[in-house]
Design a protein that fits this description.
Elements lengths: L14 H26 L5 H12 L4 E3 H8 L3 H13 L3 E6 L2 E9 L1 H21 L6 H15 L3
Antiparallel strand pairs: 1-3, 2-3
Helix pairs in contact: 1-5, 2-5, 3-4
Length: 154
């Protein structure tokens, strides 16, 4: 072990905490990769699906780039590059944001809505197969409670 950290300054994980942390990481990676694989089979990525589904729920099927980036936990520049690829495929279009001269709205196109409508049943089946159907109602309740504790700011 490096001498950079003193044992008093670092709160090392005990064996139970380490097992729980590693199990959580393995679970997140497994679910993410499995559901991403299922979406990739129909030509969409997880971020594609997130953008399309979020926009479909918004008034006018539109959201500012800033709002969408915040929802996804991405920088505006990262989302802008991703949106450019989606725009080239006809899934979204950009419109100027009248409240922010440097910003824009992402708008779900008809092709994007059709892609989402085609993907939604496949994605939901994937979520069921990889998560929901493998857990009891008590497990689902516990998972929801844990997620709520972890999703907010620390």
């Amino acid at each position: 072990m490096s001498k950079k950290w003193s044992s008093e300054a670092v709160r090392w994980l005990d064996a139970d905490e380490e097992r729980a942390w590693r199990a959580l990481r393995r679970m997140m990676i497994a679910i993410q990769s499995r559901t991403a694989h299922d979406l990739a089979a129909i030509g969409l990525s997880d971020p594609d699906y997130e953008v399309l589904s979020t926009l479909s729920e918004r008034p006018g099927r539109a959201s500012t780039l800033r709002e969408q980036a915040a929802k996804m936990g991405w920088s505006r520049s990262r989302l802008s590059r991703h949106a450019s690829r989606m725009e080239a495929r006809g899934l979204v279009r950009r419109e100027p944001d009248p409240d922010d001269g440097r910003g824009c709205y992402l708008v779900l196109t008809e092709d994007g809505l059709e892609a989402l409508e085609d993907a939604a049943p496949i994605h939901l089946e994937s979520v069921r197969r990889h998560v929901i159907d493998r857990l009891s109602p008590a497990d689902l309740s516990a998972l929801e409670n844990i997620a709520r504790k972890l999703e907010g700011p620390a």
